[in-house]
Amino acid sequence: MVVETGSDMRLAVAILALLLVLASGASAYLVLQACGVLLPLTGTRISVCEDPGRAAVRAELAGALQDRDDLSAQVAGLEREIALLQCKAEPPPPPPPPPPETPSGLAPDAFDENDISVMEGCWELSSNYDVRDIRTNRITRFRYWQICFDENGNGREVMRATNGTRCEGRLSGTLNNGQLSMREPGNLQCDNGSEIFRRDVFCTLDAQGVANCDSLQPEINGRGSATLRRAGR
């Protein structure tokens, strides 16, 4: 009869434990492969690994959220800095002076500087201006004559007759030696097929601010007179 000693039993237990570990490892190797579970007998694999594309999206989203938090912190810091600033608004520029209260809307000395920009805007020439058709002797009466200039003296004029005829064209203005000169480049064309011979118009200001104008038609030596005033007065 053989009697086992305590050391023999401990050795046997150690060997059994080692065999159990090896068996468990082998089973795990067979069952678990590449982040998945391979079910025994059926051969079915259950995946537990995250798709690489989804992992990349998750990482990108995490980065975007971090950027948002960083920007929010920067905005909050800037808002605190702005709140501490003492802003002083510049006063608005003073409004332009109103036109002089004269019949023309021009100061008596407005032409003295020979600066044509004083004529910027629209003006009306008041005159009983009648023209005669040299072919038919028919008289056309004009009671509306408006001229508009830019700051450089480039302008347009419109005339309307009592019978509805409308004439329109370009003209230019200059200031020399205290006199306003307005010159048409050619005959003024009208919408009924007629035309008004080219005119030169000269205006001066008197001490009361009245603008007196004379017109000359060089081609036929025609003459006329009118007064000039700012439109709307």
Structure description:
The chain has helices spanning 6-31, 52-84, and strands at 32-33, 36-38, 45-47, 121-126, 129-132, 139-149, 154-161, 166-176, 179-183, 188-190, 195-196, 200-205, 211-217, 222-230. By secondary structure, the chain is α+β, with helices and mostly antiparallel strands. Among the domains are: 55-85; 108-230, Lipocalin, CATH 2.40.128. The chain has an 8-stranded antiparallel barrel. A 3-stranded antiparallel sheet has the order 1-2-3. Strand 1 (32-33) and strand 2 form a beta hairpin. The chain starts with 5 loop residues before the first helix and ends with a strand. Mean pLDDT is 82; it is low at 1-6.
Please provide a brief summary of the model:
The chain has 2 helices and 14 strands. The chain is of the alpha+beta class and 233 residues long. The radius of gyration is 50 Å and the shape is elongated.
CATH class of the domain at 108-230, anyone? Mainly Beta
Biggest sheet, in brief?
8 strands, antiparallel, barrel
Spatial arrangement of strands, main beta sheet = 4-6-7-8-9-12-13-14
What's the helix count? 2
Considering DSSP H and I runs of 4 or more, what fraction of the residues is helical? 25-40%
Rg is 50 Å
Spatial separation of the terminal alpha carbons: 144 Å
CATH architecture of the domain at 108-230: Beta Barrel
Q: What fold name goes in the CATH topology slot of the domain at 108-230?
A: Lipocalin
Q: Stretches where pLDDT falls below 50 for ≥5 residues?
A: 1-6
The helix-strand sequence is: HEEEHEEEEEEEEEEE
- Average residue pLDDT: 82
